[in-house]
Each structure stands twice: as structure tokens, then as C-alpha cells.
Amino acid sequence: MNSKRIVIIGGVAGGMSAATRLRRLDEQAEIIVLERSGHVSFANCGLPYHVGGVIAKRDSLLLQTPASLGARFGLDVRVGQEAIAVDPAARSVQVRNLATNEVYNLEYDSLILSPGAKPVRPPLPGIERALTLRNVEDTDAIVAACTDATTAVVVGGGFIGIELAENLVHRGLQVTIVEATAQVMAPIDPELAAIVHDRLRDNGVDLRLGQSVASIGEDDVILADGTRVSADVVVAAIGVRPDTSLAVGAGLAVGERGGIRVDDQFRTSDPNIYAIGDAVEKVDAIDDSASLVPLAQTANLQGRRVADVIMGRPAYGRPVLGTAIVGVFGLQVASTGWNEKRLRQAGRPYRAIHTHPGNHAGYYPGSCQISLKLLVDPETDEILGAQGVGESGVDKRIDVIATAITGGILASELADLELAYAPQFGSAKDPVNMLGFIAANLRDGLTETIQWHELDDAVAAGATVLDVRTRSEHNANAIPGSVLIPLDELRDRLDEVPAGDLVVHCAVGLRGYLATRVLEQHRSGYGWGRIRNLDGGMKTWLAGAGA
After folding, report:
1. Catalytic residue (one of 45, 146, 368, 506)
2. pLDDT tens digits along 358-377
3. Is 45 a catalytic residue?
4. N or C, which end of the chain has less CB nearby within 10 Å?
């Protein structure tokens, strides 16, 4: 070989980012990309929206073609070519041309594996009828199947399942989501997922939570409890697992989570073979454990970084937070880092903070309420994760918090962030700043909170629930057994506050906090014990109790 030959297996996010960056760094390298599908560069994340007609033109999803990539970057892009085996000793890839069935060997100096992830397909009777969504061909198959359909079942309530369900509704189908766990959207906690459940149901989606599929019939799906659900179309969106077949066949190391094991420069256990994207294990940013994060942004960045490594430039992988967002019938649902469920399972101490601010100044037209949750290490003030649900403004708050985690900014330091403000975009005290104020108050002992799922135990232990909302709010919806003393009357009615432990609550937490500060500074002689504010107020409690 007169020039260095780099072979990349798999295109789209990781593979094509690597290929184009390699060319920008080395005009002489021979760069060959093998892609088994018919399209090497397409908008993966836009596929569900073509199913629903939101992205009307199929060609809008096709970003580049082999010809355009060859013309602009001098790349040898081969679609319909499946890599079937890798021989590390000979530094060669065995390739099958899927059109002709011809098999040939392709030698390399460096090999990049970017095969992505493959959909999970459980061995259910009739599973062969279930469609999956991974590439443009899959999208075409779903669109074709929907042409004369009226009903659809989506198996799985994760990101892809939710997006597909919404877009199948846009097509006019009656859609059922079957999810084996008690909630959709596993990265968020149940009290926020409840908001998503309501939005799905309000838009006609039939949610079957805590249900599993027993079998798939010709025109229906049979659930484990024997229920039959009509289904002209069935889509399996149960999840994905790393596609490691080539790596395993080549004798490369696979990690504990089932992904290809790589070092911080994307080298596999063979020094001439690199791996990136959904197929590889990453390092979790919260505890440095092995992690599987199948996200396009991470794959794109890894593609760029691995090209730098191969060309001798200093570059390293980064830990991952799993920052993600999805749209659900006008809702933005976003998360970063760990959720409360995971923290509990790991036995890691944490402090939860809920707020329900407006997305921008309330006096400016169009303000809507968003729900935010911050998870904090109570000893170090380190931010462990965050979640948000709302119609507008969730994306930028989660992005700010993800950036703060990456930069090592502590929870209480969120209060000091200088964020852009005008009434149509935010508030003078941005919701992120407010999270910081609350975190600082908790850190400094100015207030103590109790979570929605802890309230029953507190009441059972003798605590009184003190409602400091208005009478009309209390009459409309009250926590059973609660005592009403509106905040504006509290100082004049302190002698009516029962002795013992108190759990104070309002609608979203602010008035409850104000009331706890009043009580704490007047506690002498009243016999009050522990005084706690119900975190996130009635709104969080109602969502959690109904989840």
C-alpha cells in the first residue's frame, strides 16, 4: 500500500463522522466505508417523524450519498456491503456484496468498528410480524404497513416507542403502547412520568403499563393476562443491544455490560482495531462504571475523536451522562445523569429537589409551567442528575445542568450562574438559579424537605400535614387529614398549629418553604418537633401518588 488504508465498518453517525474527519486530517489516506444497508448517511433520529408525515419528504432524511461523499471527501463508500468476519492477525475484513453475494477480502492498516446497536427481539410466538426501526429500509416497511391500517401496537415505552406512538397517531391510527414496567420513559422518575402518561392518554394512546406480550397474532397482540389488543401493525421498540458479532468473532474483548471494550482512545483489545458508537461501552460520568449510551451525539463525537487518535493527535473519550430529550405530543421530556430509582438501587445517598416554575416570566403571554427535578449528593453538593417535563424551556434547563455537571459546578452554585434573561425567554431568577437557591438552603440547614413517597410514613409516625394554601385551593383538593392555615394568616394563628412533627405543604413548594421559615423562628414554646416542607408541593404529591 502506498498510503495508509483505514476501513470503517458502519456509517451514519459514528462511522461517517470518523471518515470525514480522517479526510480533513489526511488528504492521502485511503478511507473505505462499508455499510450493509442501502444508505450510509441519513438522519437516524428523524425516522419516526417521516412515519408520521411530520417530515414529509423521504429524501429529507438522506444527508449524503456515496457519490456525494466521494466527490467532496474522496471517500470510497460501499453500501450493500456486509462485513462478515475480521481477521486481526492478517489485518483483513471479509466482505459480502449483498447484491451479487460475492465475497472478498479487504486489508487494512487501521480498522474502525461502528456497527451500532441492534433492536431487541424476544423469542415470542409471532415475533416475525413485528417491525423494528433502525434504518431507512425499516422506515419504508413501517410506512407501507400503515397504508391500510387502523390499529397499531407499540411494544416498549422508551424513546423510540414513544416517538413512534405519537407519529402513528398522527397517521390516524389507534395506538396502544404495551410496557412491561410501571411507567414509560425509564430515565425519568415516576412522578414526572405521570405527566407523560396523562399527555399520551389525552391524545388517545391506550397505555398498558406493567403488561408484557405473550404472543403476536395475525391481527392482534395477546398480552400475558390473556387480553387481546387489535393490531394491524406491530412495532417492537423494546430496546437495543450493542451489535458485537464481528468483535466477538474476531476475539476482541467484550465488557461486563455487553458492549465492545475500548480504552480511553477507543482501542479495542487489538491495537489496530478501534470501536465507537452504540456498540461500545462508555464510562459513566457519575461513578466511572461501564455504561451503554446509544445516543447519536456521543457517537458523532467519538467518530471525530477516534480519527484524531488514528492520525496521532491527542484525543480521548469523555465520560457520558446520557443527556437526552424526547417530544411527546408537545411535551419536552429530558434528563441527564442518574435518576432517583438508580440512586436508590445503588444505595447512594442523595437529596431530591422538585420545582414547578414557569418557562418564562408569568406576566409575558404564553408562559407555561414546567416540572424540574434535581438530584444532589447531600455531603458534597455534587449534582448527580436532573429531569424535566414541560411544553417549553425544558431543553435549555437540562442542557445548562448537564453542562454544570461536566464543569464540576455544585448544586448550590447553580444560583450564581449568569443566564440570559428577557421576559419571553425566562425569568430574572431562572428556574436553574432557583434550583441552586433551594440546594443552598438545604445544604445550609435553612429548610428541610420531605419527598412525596415519604409522606405516608411520616403521617403514620404522628406528623401533622399543615396546608398553607388558600381555602379555595384546599377545598378543591386536599391531602386527607391535613390542617388548613393559609400562609397569610399563619403568624396570627400560630397557637392553632398542632404540636409535634409538621409536614408543611402548598401547591408547588414555595409557600411551604416560607411557612417553614415562619414556624422555625417562632417555635419557642409551641411544642413543634421536626418541621419539613413537602418538596414540590401538592403538584408533585398528586403526580407521585397517582403514578
Report:
1. 45
2. 999 989 999 999 999 999 99
3. yes
4. N
